[in-house]
């Protein structure tokens, strides 16, 4: 089973860990279980400096997450947490832990959110403090082959195609979408990526009004390889879940083999 958790993270990492601990107590008993967290679950700061400070303690927080995996016997896709890249930048890193607390993969967010949005914040410049990643990451798991992405990556179909070509069957999209862009584009983009790659798409989101002044869209969602919405949580803190049917996924890919029909493969990642 796979669960997408919706959170409303603040500026204090320890308080966000406590929020996560309370949510984990409410998990279903089904095992194996993969818990997916949203982008910036550990710290949703007022500036990149807040994340840089937490990045210097990333080993400490990774140890806490590892312990939670062992305690609850869960796999954990840790949305993003800041991990130092050099003295003045950090990676927005998505870590995948197994139920023994081992880190199996680290995906560093490739596409950085440097845009202007007609909301209360107005301007976003992730590249001021965040170091862009370079590697496409797919990991074997009991839940299928998992492809890792983060939030703004959703707008770049080439990355998703690259994940599918590397065997991804379940693609994670931990996010902190603004309310403006979320209302306009969130579900259409997620559905498109699921249909194009014929994969399950699991999008755990931040939701609500945050301590840093930002407002996020929420609407954590799970979409099937056929583009059906299997579960959605519009607002508030909580979680949704599904049991992926990989037999159905393989049947969809067999009956409509779009990847083998792809005529522009050489132009993709």
UniProtKB/TrEMBL annotation:
Statement: the UniProt record of this protein carries the keyword Hydrolase: yes
GO molecular function annotation: hydrolase activity
Keywords from the UniProt entry: Hydrolase
Domain CN hydrolase positions: 1-246
CDD domains from the UniProt entry: nit
SUPFAM superfamilies from the UniProt entry: Carbon-nitrogen hydrolase
Protein name stated in the entry: Carbon-nitrogen hydrolase family protein
Organism (species): Pseudoalteromonas neustonica
């Amino acid at each position: 089973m796979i669960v997408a958790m919706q959170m409303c993270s603040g500026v204090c990492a320890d308080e966000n860990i406590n929020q996560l601990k309370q949510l984990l107590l409410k998990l279903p008993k089904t095992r194996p279980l993969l818990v997916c967290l949203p982008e910036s679950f550990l710290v949703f700061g007022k500036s990149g400096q807040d994340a840089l400070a937490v990045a210097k303690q990333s080993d400490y927080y990774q140890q806490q997450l590892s312990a939670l995996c062992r305690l609850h016997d869960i796999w954990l896709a840790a949305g993003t947490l800041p991990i130092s890249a050099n003295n003045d930048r950090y990676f927005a890193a998505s870590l995948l832990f197994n139920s023994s607390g081992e880190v199996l993969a680290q995906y560093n967010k490739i596409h950085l959110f440097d845009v202007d949005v007609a909301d209360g914040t107005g301007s976003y410049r992730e590249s001021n403090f965040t170091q862009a990643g370079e590697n496409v990451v797919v990991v074997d798991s009991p839940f299928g082959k998992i492809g890792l992405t983060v939030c703004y990556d959703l707008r770049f179909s080439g990355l998703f195609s690259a994940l599918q070509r590397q065997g991804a069957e379940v693609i994670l999209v931990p996010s902190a979408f603004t309310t403006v862009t979320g209302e306009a584009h969130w579900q259409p983009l997620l559905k498109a990526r699921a249909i194009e790659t014929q994969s399950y798409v699991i999008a755990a989101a931040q939701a609500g009004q945050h301590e840093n002044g930002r407002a996020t869209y929420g609407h954590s969602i799970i979409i099937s390889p056929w583009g059906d919405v299997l579960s959605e949580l519009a607002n508030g803190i909580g979680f949704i879940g599904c049991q992926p049917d990989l037999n159905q996924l393989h049947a969809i890919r067999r009956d409509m083999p779009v990847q083998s029909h792809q005529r522009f493969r050489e132009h993709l990642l």
